[in-house]
Structure formats: C-alpha cells, structure tokens
Design brief:
heterodimer; A: 663 residues; 6-stranded antiparallel beta sheet; 11% strand; B: 155 residues; alpha+beta; OB fold (Dihydrolipoamide Acetyltransferase, E2P); 5-stranded mixed β-barrel; 27% strand; elongated
Amino acid sequence: MIPELGHFALILALLVAATQGIVPMVGAALNRQRMMAVARPAARMQFVLVAIAFACLAWSFASNDFSVQNVASNSNSELPLHYRIAATWGSHEGSLLLWALMLTGWSCAVSAFSRNLPDALAARVLSVMGLISVGFLLFLLFTSNPFARLIPPAPEGRDLNPLLQDPGMVFHPPLLYMGYVGFSVAFAFALAALIGGRLDATWARWSRPWTTVAWAFLTTGIALGSGWAYYTLGWGGWWFWDPVENASFMPWLTGTALIHSLAVTEKRGAFRSWTVLLAILAFSLSLLGTFLVRSGVLTSVHAFATDPARGVFILAFLAIVIGGSLALFAWRAGSVGLGGSFALVSRESMLLANNIVLIVAMASVLLGTLYPLFLDALDLGKISVGPPYFEAVFYPLLAPAVFLMGVGPIARWNRTAVPELAARLKWALAVALVSALLLPFVLGRWSPLVVVGLFLALWLFATTAVNLWQRLRGSHRGNLRARLAANPPSYYGMLLAHFGVGVFIVGVTLVKGYEIERDVRLDVGQRVAVGPYEFAFLGVTPAPGPNYRALVGTVEVRQDGRLIETLHPEKRIYNASGQTMTIAAIDTGISGDRYVSLGEAIGGDGAIAGAWSVRIYLKPFVDWIWLGAFVMALGGFVAVSDRRYRLAVRRRLGALAGAAAAE
Amino acid sequence: MKPRTRRFGWIAGGLALLGVATALVLNAFQSNLVFFFTPSQVAADEAPRGRPFRIGGMVEAGSLTRDRDSLTVHFRVTDTARTIPVSYTGLLPDLFKEGKGVVAQGSLAADGSFHATEVLAKHDANYMPPQAQAAIDKARQGMTMPSLHETKADR
C-alpha cells in the first residue's frame, strides 16, 4: 500500500510539474498576473508530492518490504537501519528520485526567496524548472519506477553493494546532487533572462547566490566522494581520473568559471553572453554527468543497470535541453549586448583569463572522458585514457591560473597600472618564492614539482594576507573590529575560498612529492621499516560483524623503538553477497596519514597463521586536500550570507533599462 | 591605445593562449592513449612492443601461482581461443578470482609473456569487465561488433 501511495504521489507530481512548466510561461508571455501566480504554489505542491514519494520509498527500505523490486535488489534485512535508509538512494531508481526531490526542493526555495523578483522573471524561472522536472519525472515513471512490485515477493534482499555501506556514502550522493541540481537554478535564470530579453547587472545579482550555493554543495560532495575512494577502495589514492569522477568535475570547473564570470557581470555589466553560455553549459554538463554515470555507458559502482531504454531516454532529454537552450541562446544573445570595455591589465581581463583556462581544462577532461566512448561506439577500437594524460594537461594549465588568482583580487576593475600591481605584490612574491625554494630542504627532498606546488600555495596565502591587510589599512578609522566589519561577507568568502585552494595545493603537492607506498609480504611477527616508522604485523583474528564476517589484523607502529599506534585493518566477507571488502586502517594526522590495508593470505599456512600481503602507505599532508575543499565550500557559504543579496532589489523596469543603457 | 587596438590585443592574447593549451592537450592525449587487445590479437602479434597496452579476458582456472618469497603472481588470461601468460607484482584486487573476468595494463616481455603493472579491480562481484566480455565474445563468434555498452572498464 505504501509503495502505491508513493507511486501515485509521483504521478500527481508529474501533473503539477507540467502545470508549473506551461501555465506561468504562457502567463508571462501574455502578461497575465493570475497565470503567473500559479508558479509559486505549484512549485511548493510539487515538492511536497515528491517528498511524500521519497518518504514512501525510504519507509519501504526501512521496513524491509522485499515485495518492492528496488528494495529486494538493494537491501537486506541484516543491513543496519542507517544503511537501509541510505540504500534509498543507493540504487539507480532511488538516486533519480533523490535527484527529482532535490530539483523540486530548489524550485521550492526559489519560490520562497523570489519575493523581490519581477513577477514575469520569477514565473519564467519556475516554469523552466518545472519543465526540467517534467523530463525527470517522465524518466522515473516510464523507465525507472522505484516502486515496481516484485511478484512473488523475495524472501530476502540481495543486499546493498558493500562498497556503499559506509558513512561517506550516506552523505556523498545528497550533497553532490544538491550541487548538480543547484545549477538548474542558474540555468533557469539564464533561460528566463534570454526569453524576457533582459540580462543585466540585477539579473546577475539574483543568480549569483544560487550559483555559489550550488557550487559549494558540489565542492563538498566531490570532496566526500574523493575521501570515500581514499579509504574504501584500499588503494590510498584520492583521485583516479575515473570517468565517473570526471563527470562531477566538469560541472565543477564550469561552475567555478560561472561564479567568476557572474561577478564581472554584476559589478561591471561585462561578459553577459559568456555568463549565460556558462550557465547553460554548467547545467548541461550536470545532465551529461547523470547520463554518463546512470545510463550504464560507463561501468562502475555508480552504474546500476544497462537498460538501453534508459540510455536513449536520457540522451534524448540531453539533446532537447542542450539543443533547445543553445538555440534559444543563438536566437536571443544578440539582444543581450556586450557590456563595458576594459583594459588589457585589469581585474576583468584576469577573470577572463581564469575563465578561459577553466573552460579549456573542462574541455580537456571532456575529451579524455568521451573520446574512448565514441571510438568504442563506432567500433574503431578500445582505448583508455588514464591519469598520465590528465596530469600532463592539468599541471601546466592550472598553474598560471592559480598565479592569477593571487593577482586578480588585488587588481582594479577596468584598468590597473602594472607598476602599481608590482609594488603591492612584491613582498608576497618574495616571501612565497624564497620559502618555496627552501621548504623542500626541511621536508627532505628537493624537486621542481614540489617547489612549483609550494610556491603556488604560498603565493595564495601571501596574496590573501596582503589583500586583507591593504583592505583593513585603507578603510575608515576605528578599531580592528570596526575595520573588519566594514568589509562585506562576500569579500571574506572570496578570501576564504582562495585560501582553501592554497590548502588544497599544499596537500596535493606534498602527497605527490613525499608519499611512500610499499606492498610487502609479512609473516606473523615480522617487521618492516617504512620511512621513519617500523611496522610489526601481529597476525589476524576472526571477528563477527552485523552482516559480515571479518578478519581483523593487528599492526603495531613504532618510531625510534617507541610504540606510537596500533592499527587494525580488516578484511570483510559480506554474508548476503559473498563479496570481499578491504577496510584500511588509517591513522590520521594534520601532518599526514599512516595507512595500512590487508591484501590476502599467502603462503600455505592458512589465513590465521600464515603470511599476508600487506599494503603500507605514508601519506604526508593528505588530509589537507579535503580540508582545502571544505574551506573553499565554506567560503561559498560565507559569501552568500551577504546582506546585499537580501536587500530589496526590485526596481522600476525603466530604471533597469536606463542603467543598462548607461553602461 | 585605441579601444580597437586594445580589443585586438586581448583577442590575440586569448587566441595564443588557447592555441598553446590546445597543442598541449592534444600532445598529451596522443602520447597517453592506452589501447586494448584481446589474447587472440596478442597471439597474432597485433599488439605493440615497448608500449603499454591493456589485455582482457578470463583468468584461466587453475593457472594462478605465487612466488614463495615475493608478491609476484603468475596467471594466464584467456579469451577461450588463445591464452597469454601474465605476471604481476603487488596486491591483487578483492574481486580477482580464477574463472572470472580481468583487465590488466602492462607491456609484452621479450619471451612473449605480459608484465602487468596494474590489475584492474571491479566494483561488483556479479560484474564482468565489459572489455573482458568483449574479448571472449569476439573469440567465440569471430569478429562481431561489440554493443554500445561494452565500453571502457574503470577501476
């Protein structure tokens, strides 16, 4: 009964979405207030309906209703409750339902926070979001019904993939989706502006906070996924340039470009067409990511089923959304105008360079991800593009962009004199350069890659400090608190995000430069020295788990003969699926991780008494990678707390047109 | 500077940057492609020597042996028509089993055996690496066209 209720709610949601997609759009075109007024209540009702459907599915999982196909395939009565609930979005159908829930959630938020928007714009934005929702709900209902019944019911479920039975997996998908789907708001704003033919600084101010929040969620989601891969896959890597990772990284790169481009459009009125194009691109890439990950074209932990109908549906949806929005762009972009001009050395030109680099980086990821698929689809051979390609492209491409990140925020809008810039930044440059050249001697080994990485990170730290100091010195008199309060949160958000990039670079550089990875064969009682530590393997003991059997190893870590840590890596065999899982034991610290994972029992003496293959890693400063990502995301959240975005921005349309003409 | 000269300046600058970036990307792409071959193709000497590539197929049942004192393992990969001996030093992924599909990256040694630098792990026990499946299908049915879904395997 409950699953049918959910199914019914989903069908009703589709009808409401269709109404939300069509009526307000027509109303805006005909300038009918009552038709436009449909948008807000429809968005809220749709959210409630999808939330009911989602709750019904979660209930089916929680209560072990194995008469539902989805539950029987992805859950098990032995699975702990929190993983049963997380299993709701652990399957293809459930994750799409989560996507729909996020989309209606964002629409609902837009309906609540759009009081200051002109009615026609709000109606069009919500209408575009309604149309996207129609596509997704159709997809859910016709190809991936999460409530499909299994007759006769299964006596027991097949279990959630053990790799997904992890706390990180509980939060990774919702956060990632918040980001992915959040770009639909920027997309809807862009389309609404194109349709209405009004694209100006005010429009940019409206779409900025939405874009920044989506970007911050996406950053957090990607960081969680990366952290999960680090400790769950047992390989100690944090990024594999795997197509499913690339699928989330492409919208992130484009979203980052969009945030910066929106800043220029808001402050200077420039880059308008470019900003709109980026908004379309960011959401299109989110959809492409969904297509790549969910359609079964790529095979991985994320791809659940290879049902051709789904692939064709998503591809068609993708073609309609991307093709339609680009056609609209081509048709209306001429009316948008170019915006202000600026000098060769100015904040605008640096942000433009940043945008170009980010988009080229995105295109190179796209090439590396899609080219093998195209070749294969055309039967021209099977190839793969691995990390060496992406590394060869990314380091030289992003290094200049990071350098500009230090200069850009200090440069003036419109025109900056180079000597003045140099004078303001000479100390930052000197400090960063000298420290980067000397620090590797302290850390152990000098290598050019480490020097470049450290220089970029220190450059970001130093320019952030210079920026803050000059701001505080230049502001009105008063004590430090008053001076700090004189700057808006968006300024601190920007500083924080750039600082986070520096933290991230420190992590990447030092792991790359100084990590030690050893795979060794260890008899019980045998010791091995890795870096400054000595690892002693004391054998494994069996231990039961809630839905698995485990062998738990004991590894003592000594430094200078003193015991500093006892680690317990595990090997689990899950009861329902019989699948083996490696659980690494990681001793985390601010200056790095000690990472131990079990391979398998080797030698003839059996699992308990015999030798094991053991993987021992030292990962200096690896946690700074995720710390940096979280600081970036935090910067985004701080930036949107700016009051400026909440002030009444409704103005007379005449005043808007006047301002646009004046630029 | 006149506005027109200025605009020309940064359009030229942007294009130069784009050109350099494109050259960089394509060059890196060209030199880092890894091609995939089936054991039959390797036996027919179609695979390159001295350049890494991937092979895929099934781990032949009963073929797995270990060196006594190191982490080196030996096994044979088959597409049911031909087999190729493979050696690998390191930890095997959780889902590596005899009689199951496998994809390995490495290069050919002088004696015709394959030295793997990487054995790719899979995410799901019920899952057959599509490349391995394709290799077997090809060997069984002659050269038929693989479907859209038999694509690059990852991890």
